[in-house]
UniProtKB/TrEMBL annotation:
CDD domains reported in the protein's UniProt record: IDI-2_FMN (cd02811)
Keyword Flavoprotein: yes
Species, as recorded: Anaeromonas frigoriresistens
Domain of life: Bacteria
Required cofactor(s): FMN; NADPH; Mg(2+)
Subunit: Homooctamer. Dimer of tetramers.
Domain FMN-dependent dehydrogenase: 175-330
Protein name: Isopentenyl-diphosphate delta-isomerase
One term under GO cellular component: cytoplasm
Binding site for FMN: A70, M71, T72, S100, N129, K191, T221, G267, M268, R269, S288, G289
Positions annotated to bind substrate: R14, K15, Q159
Record-linked Gene3D superfamilies: Aldolase class I (3.20.20.70)
Length: 348
């Protein structure tokens, strides 16, 4: 029990460290959405008032296909952070995923900052989050804790391997995910945390029955940089550009099949990027770091406004594309240029 307590304390202090580091520095780079070109339409034949951003996710209606993606929980300030983020999600009627619940599965004392999200979001879409090593029972416990609509399983070998206290053995993960997909009666979302899902990984996930993939690509919050800042023994500068850019990961994952539900996360910062992602095949977009930063640095209103701006400007872009709803964005012709084209063309 003592060992469990001390592990929980390490996890809790790490979660606090992550938030603090992410708030201090800019850990971002290029997600390659700049290389997706959408064509302007001078004859949209639309009234701005009729443009709708309504969508649905996990069987519930939402007002805009963007979610506040997994971040935090399990330390002193996390109740305040999560309750405010959940309030934003409720006001905007968008989904929210909680941060890793591993700490609270092991120790009930850490449940409050996760439970508050369901309390505040009421009937909205709330998503659990666990690591890929938890058992089916533990995953079920995480979902019961917040009456989750789905569960995210995060894949983060790049983060763990750069973390002094991180995991070193990554064997058995695919089998464990298969077990969860078979035995959990709600959708299982497999997500990266910022290094992207490759075509091969997406194919392997689909082959074991995974239907929801969050590509969590390179270009936004970068956990190699974050862990580098926490690591006193090694530096990882040479890996700062490691990872699959979000735009590439999204396009290649979508090319595998139309039956996958794809979440595009990783450096999604602007309405332009959100609309581009929807045009090239995302079902929904995930945003994490900036919402947290806005809330902690500038307060609730600023964080909410940040997302409201994205929603408004997405409608502006939809008008300029001549598309009146989210479904129609799937038919927008787009072109790929620059390095993204090179990466796509260069694939063997
Ligand atoms: C994260 N992320 C994350 N992901 C996850 O699956 N479980 C987790 O517990 C966390 N924790 C976490 C903490 C903080 C402070 C941040 C900023 C992020 C990763 C997150 O869900 C997302 O995949 C990446 O941050 C990339 O998106 P952004 O930040 O570039 O929008």
């Amino acid at each position: 029990m003592e060992e469990l307590n001390s592990k929980s304390k390490i996890r809790s202090s790490r979660k606090k460290d992550h938030v603090n580091h992410i708030l201090k520095d800019n850990f971002e780079s290029d997600n390659y959405f700049k290389d997706i070109y959408l064509e302007h339409n001078s004859l949209p034949e639309l009234d701005f008032a009729e443009i709708s951003t309504k969508s649905s996710f996990l069987g519930k209606d939402i007002s805009f296909p963007v979610m506040i993606n997994a971040m935090t929980g399990g330390f002193d300030k996390a109740v305040e952070i999560n309750s405010n983020l959940a309030k934003i999600a409720r006001e905007l009627n968008i989904p929210m995923a909680v941060g890793s619940q591993t700490i609270a599965i092991k120790d009930k004392n850490y449940e409050a900052s996760f439970k508050i999200v369901r309390e505040v979001l009421k009937d909205g879409v709330v998503i659990s989050n666990v690591n890929a090593f938890v058992s089916v029972d533990e995953a079920r416990r995480a979902m019961e804790m917040i009456q989750a609509d789905a569960i995210q399983i995060h894949l983060n070998p790049a983060q763990e391997i750069c973390m002094p206290e991180g995991d070193r053995d990554f064997k058995g993960v695919l089998n464990n995910i298969e077990d969860m997909v078979k035995k959990i009666d709600k959708p299982v979302i497999v997500k990266e945390v910022g290094f992207g899902i490759s075509k091969d990984v997406a194919t392997r996930l689909r082959s074991i029955g995974v239907k929801y993939i969050d590509v969590g690509g390179h270009g936004g919050t970068n956990f190699i940089k974050v862990e580098n800042a926490r690591n006193e023994e090694f530096d990882f500068y040479e890996l700062f550009e490691w990872g699959i850019p979000t735009a590439l990961s999204l396009i290649e994952t979508r090319a595998i099949s139309n039956d996958l539900n794809i979440i595009s996360t990783g450096g999604m910062r602007t309405a332009n990027e959100v609309v581009k992602a929807l045009c090239v095949g995302a079902d929904i977009i995930g945003i994490s770091g900036p919402v947290l930063k806005k809330f902690v640095d500038e307060g609730y209103e600023s964080a909410e406004k940040y997302l409201q701006n994205i929603i408004y400007k997405s409608k502006v872009i939809m008008l300029l594309l001549g598309k009146k709803n989210i479904g129609e964005l799937k038919n927008v012709p787009y072109r790929i240029k620059g390095e993204l084209k090179e990466l796509l063309d260069g694939a063997k």
